[in-house]
Amino acid sequence: MPERNVVIIGGGLVGSLTACYFAKRGWQVDLYEKRPGKQFCLPTWLSIRSINLAISERGFSALRRLDPTLEKRVKALVIPMHGRMIHSLDGTQTSQAYDVFGKAINSVGRSTLIRVLLDEASQYKNVRMHFNHEFQQADFDAGRADSDLIVGADGAYSRVRQRLMAKVMLNYSQTYIEHGYCEFSMPPRNGDFAISPSHLHIWPRQSFMLIALPNQDKSFTVTLFDQLKTGQDAVEFFRANFPDALDLMGADKVASEYMVNPKGSLMYVKCTPYTYKNRAVVIGDAAHAMVPFYGQGMNCGFEDIEELDKIMLSVARDGMSDDQILRALDTYSSKRTKDASAIVDLALDNYVEMRAKVIDYAYLARKHLEGLLHRVFPKHIIPLYTMVSFTSIPYAAVIGRWQRQSLWLHRAVRTAFAAAAFAVGVASARVLGLRAPSLVEVARLFTKRS
Amino acid sequence: MPERNVVIIGGGLVGSLTACYFAKRGWQVDLYEKRPGKQFCLPTWLSIRSINLAISERGFSALRRLDPTLEKRVKALVIPMHGRMIHSLDGTQTSQAYDVFGKAINSVGRSTLIRVLLDEASQYKNVRMHFNHEFQQADFDAGRADSDLIVGADGAYSRVRQRLMAKVMLNYSQTYIEHGYCEFSMPPRNGDFAISPSHLHIWPRQSFMLIALPNQDKSFTVTLFDQLKTGQDAVEFFRANFPDALDLMGADKVASEYMVNPKGSLMYVKCTPYTYKNRAVVIGDAAHAMVPFYGQGMNCGFEDIEELDKIMLSVARDGMSDDQILRALDTYSSKRTKDASAIVDLALDNYVEMRAKVIDYAYLARKHLEGLLHRVFPKHIIPLYTMVSFTSIPYAAVIGRWQRQSLWLHRAVRTAFAAAAFAVGVASARVLGLRAPSLVEVARLFTKRS
């Protein structure tokens, strides 16, 4: 079996992890990245894009499969966030744990993580890195020895995907949401974190919100999600809506950062298939960009490559024929498009949860009940957030399971109400000396409500 | 006010009509078409794409607004089809009129119509045509004197739209349906049409169908819509499903045409917005490609330019400032995206209607009832097909109106049933000497069913 070569377009988080995986399986890897990346030591572009990252189980699982020590090294660099801290308008802070067993998602700097992964990739002798190289065009069918396979890990505005679109009948959609984002920073206070570092902070204001994630240097990255208007007086806006955050950040800083920092747009992408024959595949944001509200963009991208690796190994252990690659890519595409579509939808839904539902009583009551049940039946009742963030249950299966669970939960709540009503009825009847209601009568009362 | 210049990309049906409209309003027009088009006399590319065209009210309206004699000249070239002719498996033919007042849609050859329109455009001194010119790139912001405005009329795979996507936050989706198509021809028989020329012929077979539209030379263009399999024995397939068509087309011809003729795919496109500042707009298939099952693709494209012209004139009668163009394009985009989205959906739904519902009794009963009511209340009850094909009611309004109409129709049918039941009840009660049911009792019986 001849040596196989793969060209990876995009040296971001997903691209660099993909390089490691292919290298580990013995492929000759060429990684192309359009930005400069001299020596991998803090290239300037690493600070351009942010929205803090939160790495959770799916991300760790992919690192672990590649190399258990890599997972450990990354874990040493993160800040665990065990729950949400809700900031109300009067400054009250309320903690909401992510998981009844104390599991956490983990704040990590994009630049920190990407340096670790590029470093890791450079340890492989069969990885060649090419910075300052922009992907323009590719003849997917050329089949030259230096590119048996092209992997597009070139992000939401992927050019590889654009080429794919010209080659296959690609069902594709891109949708912008009406809100954009702007980043600010909250400096340390007296040498320490200004607010709890073990929480993801949220200032939910129904139609918009502010969030903050901790950084290693004890600062916070603060992000405003809203329909951003140009010329808006940011300080006035913060004073009216996030007065405690304004105090901690400083009016001057808020004003200048709102002026200087770019306003990003938020977009999600779905497409199917992900592949062209045995020649090309898109992965990560190039395949399924999502809004950042579930903290799953990178985790899903990492899981992509773990899934692809599993499928490739199940198809052929040593060396791969063209036909085996074709089968592996087909299998990958038909399974993964469904899972990615599910998390793209969940991420969109979670925006409403973060900015509004977290202060809704019915939501909190259900969350509490689900948490209790999860504690008693940890394998059978699993809250949605836990399934997404702390397990590797396929995203599409998560949605199915959650829908069934909701149905059962509603039934259980109704039964509990009926039982309570029956007990009250019997007791009142005794006290008043009347005929007690029959079980059937009470049951009828409650089944009518459905 | 300086003279305005427009660059139109795409010299197809919509592009050439657009050229006429801008020329009529005094703009300097440059029309670019990638295919050769020497002297407009039967350029070879005109025969490449077909799916026969059916022009109806919206298309005629746009021609009429430009020049009433143009409408007349086109009307002389079409073959009116007053209804569907349904071919059942045993060869029975059943005619279903399109309209109770005898209105018709009109079969016209793509090459015939495009020649008329290119000819028309060439009559304007301020139109320059550039064939063999392919659009590659454009700096929408350049604002050179030779292109105040760029109109992308370059079809479903529009490159202008691709540029637009790089400039604005474009919500975009393209979706392929599972079926493709393949064209055949049915020659004249004894010097005349082999089947009725005043019908659109359909062989509805639930999950697939064959259709035929008449041509001026007394042949028919026959199109198979199905999940086309390669290596399929077309003659066997026709013998099993369309035996009468096979007889009229000839087995040899079917076999060779299935082998030689390309198999097309079917795709629809939605996007919003259609415009970039006051600089660019997409129109026709470039903005809203649709599946061909409502025969509205071209009609909608023609209506696009009529709408744009109306809006431009309402904004400014003589000469236009940049700001006026901006306002006109914004208005056009926000209105037209909704209407186009509606007809894209209707066209998709109509595939099920054509291949399956036309032989469904409930569908036929409703159609009959709607037709009767339309005859009595021609302004108040208008069947869906009539609104789409024989009026200029905006497509989005058509859907709203049709939904309200369906609701009323259901209520009316229920009331009619209730009245009949009441009459039968009273009559039976008399005969049997029992208490007659009250109106309320009968009404209750029927309102429960909803």
Automatic annotation (TrEMBL), chains A, B:
Uppermost EC category: oxidoreductase
PROSITE patterns recorded: PROKAR_LIPOPROTEIN (PS51257)
Pfam families (alphabetical): FAD_binding_3 (PF01494)
Entry's transmembrane regions: 382-400, 412-432
Main subcellular location: mitochondrion
Keywords of the record: FAD, Flavoprotein, Membrane, Mitochondrion, Mitochondrion outer membrane, Monooxygenase, NADP, Oxidoreductase, Pyridine nucleotide biosynthesis, Transmembrane, Transmembrane helix
Subcellular location as annotated: Mitochondrion outer membrane
Coiled-coil regions listed: none
GO function terms (MF aspect): FAD binding; kynurenine 3-monooxygenase activity
Keyword Ion transport in record: no
Entry keyword annotation includes Transmembrane helix: yes
GO cellular component, one term: mitochondrial outer membrane
Catalytic activity: L-kynurenine + NADPH + O2 + H(+) = 3-hydroxy-L-kynurenine + NADP(+) + H2O
Domain FAD-binding: 5-346
Enzyme Commission number(s) of this protein: 1.14.13.9
The protein's annotated pathway: Cofactor biosynthesis; NAD(+) biosynthesis; quinolinate from L-kynurenine: step 1/3
Domain of life: Eukaryota
Cofactor: FAD
UniProt record, GO biological process: 'de novo' NAD+ biosynthetic process from L-tryptophan; anthranilate metabolic process; kynurenine metabolic process; L-tryptophan catabolic process; quinolinate biosynthetic process
Annotated family: Belongs to the aromatic-ring hydroxylase family. KMO subfamily.
Task performed by this protein: Catalyzes the hydroxylation of L-kynurenine (L-Kyn) to form 3-hydroxy-L-kynurenine (L-3OHKyn). Required for synthesis of quinolinic acid.
Stated name of the protein: Kynurenine 3-monooxygenase
Native species: Linderina pennispora
Lineage of origin: Eukaryota, Fungi, Fungi incertae sedis, Zoopagomycota, Kickxellomycotina
